[in-house]
Each structure stands twice: as C-alpha cells, then as structure tokens.
C-alpha cells in the first residue's frame, strides 16, 4: 500500500521525501484525498509547477544573427547532457567501410571518420554494426584496411559484431541489416547508410515508415564524412533538426514584393513590403477612402450644426 501510494503521488510530480513525511504523519491507511490535502498544506508543489515558477535561463538572441553557437546551446539545454536532445546514431559499418574504400576495400578508417563526426556534434549513443567474420585475417577476395580500428571501437563499446559461424566449412552469416534497423527503431534514432533496406521495408510497415523518415545518407569527400544538409529533400527538415529530438522551427522568411511601392494588392499581398509597418496595410482604394472619410464626416457635422442654429 505504501509503495502504491508513493508511486501514485510521484507520478503527480511530488517529491518522495514529502510523500513519506505525510504518510508517516497520517498513517499508511490514509486516503489519497487526505494525503493530497496534507501535501498542499505543507506547501509541496509538483515538479512541473516548480519548473514554471523558476526563471527561464534562455537568452534572447537578435533576429538574423549569424551565431556560430554549437548545437548544444540551441534550446538552452545543458551542454554536457547531449543525450537529451540528440538522437541515437546507428551506423551500417559494412556500408560505410565499403563506400570509403570505393567498393573495393573494407576501409575501417571510413567508420572512424563517421564516428568522429557524430562525436564532435555531441552524440553520446553511437553504435556501429559489422559482421563477426570481419575480425578474420583479410583475404584477396575481401581485403580489409586498418583492421585495428575495429578492435579500438569494440573496446569503446561503440562497435558491435553481428553473429556469424562456419558450418562444414561454409560461413553462416546473420542478416546484419535487421540488427541495424531494429536497434535504430527501438531507440528512435537515425540509420546512417546509403542502403535503402527495401526488403525490410516490405517486411514490416512500421519499419518502412521509419526507414523512409530516419535514413541518413552520406558521401566521402577527400576523407571527409559529409551527410547532406537536407536529408529528406529541399522541403524537408535541416540536418540539425533531423538529428535532434526537439527540432528548432526556422523564422519565416518574407520574400519582397516584386512590384514594390507600386503594388495595389494592399493587405491581400502575400509578399513583404518594407515600407509598410507590420505588413497590415489597406489596399490603395481603402487608403483613399480612409483619407477622404475624415473631411466628409467633418463637413456633415458642420452642416448639421448650421441647421440646428437656424
């Protein structure tokens, strides 16, 4: 009973110490309404209300400023707690390594470049999946470069080997793509690969949507890992928003009116007019009526006053 009441009021946002004090004073068999009244009488507040009462730590930034502040400061988040706003990263190690090796060599250096790129952005959860048989000595039909990098990444708990074994001299390999998509889906993260995983899309409709929306493609330019700035196309989110749990909406950009001051659409014009403050303007006809309305009303009042005097 004590644990159930403790869990109930913890879900409401009250602190455990306050709840325990009230239960000790009223007894374990006290009704929930009585416990709640006692908490309110003690002045205890849920954490949500306390956070609202605290002054905001966000700073105002001048509109249009070209600040080079790192991504960790966009939303006023703690600089060291990057996992709270950056998505987990799941890297298709085979795809990245073969892409860096021009589809001829399994280049482990390409995996290191991708991992370093996400590390510099502040991502704390990074997993690389590689088949287990890549630990074997390289052969002519499957050359491997910088194989020691795999051992270093494995020690750092970044690289994960997918199972594989030999049965009667034949290698039996588990489907590593399934590991990649499944982990990324469960972690609500991002898949780094140039593979579209069409077979897995047809297998599971939920995976289909996830792969379409969370697949981050890339290129290597002179040993530089480069994902696109618009991962989902021109009209999709930016790369920063794509990799963030809490995307930042851009400020609306107004396109200047091609007609300028000669525009006759007034407040119906969808373009920006710098000469019109707050963009709430009347049409030219309405402006003329507004200007002529004042003297007309004055004339009517004067005529009315004259008729009264007569």
Automatic annotation (TrEMBL):
Fetch the InterPro entries from UniProt: Rege-1_UBA-like (IPR040546), RNase_Zc3h12_NYN (IPR021869), ZC3H12/N4BP1_RNase_Reg (IPR051101), Znf_CCCH (IPR000571)
This entry's Gene Ontology molecular function terms read:
hydrolase activity; mRNA binding; RNA endonuclease activity; zinc ion binding
Q: Which residues form the C3H1-type domain?
A: 251-276
Keyword annotations of the record = Endonuclease, Hydrolase, Magnesium, Metal-binding, Nuclease, Zinc, Zinc-finger
Signal peptide start-end: none
Is Ubl conjugation found in the keyword set? Answer: no
Residues folding into a coiled coil are none
Q: Name one GO cellular component term.
A: nucleus
Write down the superkingdom of origin.
Eukaryota
Please list the cofactors this protein needs.
Answer: Mg(2+)
Zinc finger residue ranges, C3H1-type: 251-276
Q: What family does the database annotate?
A: Belongs to the ZC3H12 family.
Name assigned to this protein = ZC12D ribonuclease
- Name the encoding gene, please: Zc3h12d
């Amino acid at each position: 009973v004590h644990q159930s009441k403790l869990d109930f009021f913890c879900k409401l946002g009250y602190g455990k110490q306050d709840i325990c004090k009230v239960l000790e004073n009223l007894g374990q068999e006290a009704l929930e309404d009585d416990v709640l009244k006692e908490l309110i009488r003690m002045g205890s507040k849920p954490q949500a209300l306390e956070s609202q009462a605290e002054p905001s730590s966000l700073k105002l930034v001048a509109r249009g400023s070209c600040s080079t502040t790192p991504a960790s400061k966009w939303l006023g988040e703690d600089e060291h707690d990057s996992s709270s706003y950056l998505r987990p990263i799941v890297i298709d190690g085979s795809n990245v390594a073969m892409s860096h090796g021009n589809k001829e060599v399994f280049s482990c250096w390409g995996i290191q470049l991708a991992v370093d790129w996400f590390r510099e952005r502040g991502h704390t959860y990074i997993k690389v999946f590689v088949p287990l048989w890549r630990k074997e000595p390289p052969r002519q039909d499957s050359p491997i470069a910088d194989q020691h990098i795999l051992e270093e990444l494995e020690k750092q708990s970044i690289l994960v080997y997918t199972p594989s074994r030999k049965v009667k001299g034949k290698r039996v390999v588990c489907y590593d793509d399934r590991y990649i998509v499944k982990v990324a889906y469960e972690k609500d993260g991002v898949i780094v690969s140039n593979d579209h995983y069409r077979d897995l899309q047809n297998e599971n409709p939920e995976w289909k949507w996830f792969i379409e929306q969370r697949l981050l493609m890339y290129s290597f330019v002179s040993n530089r890992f480069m994902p696109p700035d618009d991962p989902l196309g021109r009209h999709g989110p930016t790369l920063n928003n794509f990799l963030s749990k809490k995307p930042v909406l851009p400020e609306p950009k107004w396109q200047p009116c091609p007609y300028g001051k000669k525009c006759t659409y007034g407040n119906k014009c969808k373009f920006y007019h710098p000469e019109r403050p707050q963009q709430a303007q009347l049409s030219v006809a309405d402006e003329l009526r507004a200007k002529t309305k004042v003297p007309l009303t004055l004339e009517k009042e004067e005529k009315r006053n004259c008729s009264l005097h007569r």
